[in-house]
Write a structure and sequence with these properties.
By secondary structure, the protein is of the alpha/beta class. The protein has twelve helices and 15 strands. Helices cover about 40% and strands about 25% of the residues. A six-stranded antiparallel beta sheet has the order 2-1-4-5-6-7, with helices on one face. A six-stranded mixed beta sheet has the order 8-12-13-3-14-15, sandwiched between helices. A three-stranded antiparallel beta sheet has the order 9-10-11.
Length: about 350
């Protein structure tokens, strides 16, 4: 998938930006605070409806108007052209796909697979399970088209059950039976689709880790389903008394985790911050390659390379960038960081960024 043109208006420091892009590699160079990361952030918001930098959606709105707009003309991995756009004011989103309004942001997400490596990517290793679940689910969503329907059905039943458990009036066994039946059916489907993707993701991650850092300590990846295994329906029955007491559903796919271990310890306890960043990069590159194998070739966004990788690891990463089929976006404060891409100069677009203004080099 490639974006041919990106237009961004009133998004953080970017007042009005229009970029004509290379299908292969696009580099944004400029000082800190110039707006480089905001360009990548606008793509993530267009794809996911939320920023990877946290904060409230209203924080993304610049000073020039009461809303921001991001619009992209792209060609999907299947070769079909699309136009997608997203606007946001303080109250609501408005999204369009091929000039038609859409009600769900997932309709845009399906057309904009992307993976971003940025300074906080280490949270994949030392952050809470929710961070790793979201990471895994983003990949499964793009690889398994029926995943989203099962997950939505599961979440709807989970919210209903938790509301019933917290009610002042204890839920009847019949109500819990009906909700648990939905949780078990849709939860098992979610679990199986995750497992189907995780095995290959783990293989690709370890391959990338060996390429990036051959001397890296031995690491293992395991998928924990969120309950103690076996039949989810029976597990829910066996733990109903505890759930009633705790007023919460204590197990299921919503509690799943990708467990990362090194030398029989949690990876976050054993690895240095630099090693955690390397492992996180390998996870994200693994996900990018997983999507590529499925036909959903993603954008690869690499933010602030000079602070994330030393020369050796950077050279290995940029070698992968030149080999991959998809479009890559790179930001850096130092143009020399891009020197390993000299062999791909005819496929690379360079942009200089200063005070929110972007000019082609």
């Amino acid at each position: 998938m490639q974006i041919h043109k990106l237009a961004v208006d009133n998004f953080r420091i970017l007042s009005s930006v229009e970029l004509n892009l290379s299908n292969k590699i696009n580099c944004l160079v400029g000082p800190n605070g110039a707006g480089k990361t905001s360009v990548l952030e606008s793509l993530v918001v267009l794809a996911k409806g939320r920023s990877f930098r946290g904060g409230q959606a209203g924080d993304l709105i610049g000073p020039a108007a009461e809303e921001f707009t991001v619009h992209a003309n792209l060609v999907s991995s299947s070769g079909a052209p699309h136009s997608i756009g997203l606007s946001r004011d303080q109250n609501q989103w408005r999204a369009r796909l091929d000039r038609q309004e859409v009600k769900r942001l997932s309709d845009l997400s399906a057309h904009l697979p992307l993976v971003i490596i940025e300074p906080n990517s280490h949270k994949l290793v030392d952050g809470p399970p929710q961070t790793r679940r979201r990471f895994l689910d983003w990949g499964v969503f793009h690889v398994k088209p029926d995943y989203l329907g099962h997950w939505r059905r599961y979440r709807r039943a989970l919210n209903q059950k938790n509301a019933a458990l917290k009610s002042n009036h204890p839920p009847t066994p019949a109500l819990l039976d009906s909700l648990d039946a939905v949780l078990a059916e849709s939860g098992e489907a979610v679990h199986l689709l995750r497992v189907a993707c995780f095995k290959r993701l783990a293989e690709l991650t370890l391959n990338h880790l060996r390429r990036l850092s051959p001397d890296f300590p031995e690491v293992s990846l395991d998928y924990s389903p969120g309950w103690s295994g076996g039949d989810l329906s029976q597990w829910l029955v066996d733990h109903r008394s505890r759930d009633l007491k705790m007023e919460n559903t204590s197990g299921g796919p919503h509690r799943a985790d990708v467990r990362l271990r090194c030398n029989d310890q949690k990876a976050s306890n054993h690895l240095s911050r630099g090693q955690q960043k390397m492992l996180a990069a390998a996870l994200l590159l693994g996900e990018a390659e997983l999507l590529e194998e499925s036909g959903a070739t993603p954008l690869l966004l690499l933010d602030d390379l000079s602070s994330e990788f030393d020369q050796q690891h950077l050279a290995s990463l940029l070698a992968f960038v030149q080999r991959r089929a998809g479009q890559t976006w790179i930001t850096s404060v130092d143009e020399q960081v891009m020197d390993p891409l000299a062999g791909a100069a005819d496929e690379t677009a360079m942009f200089h960024v200063k005070h929110g203004v972007i000019k082609a080099a």
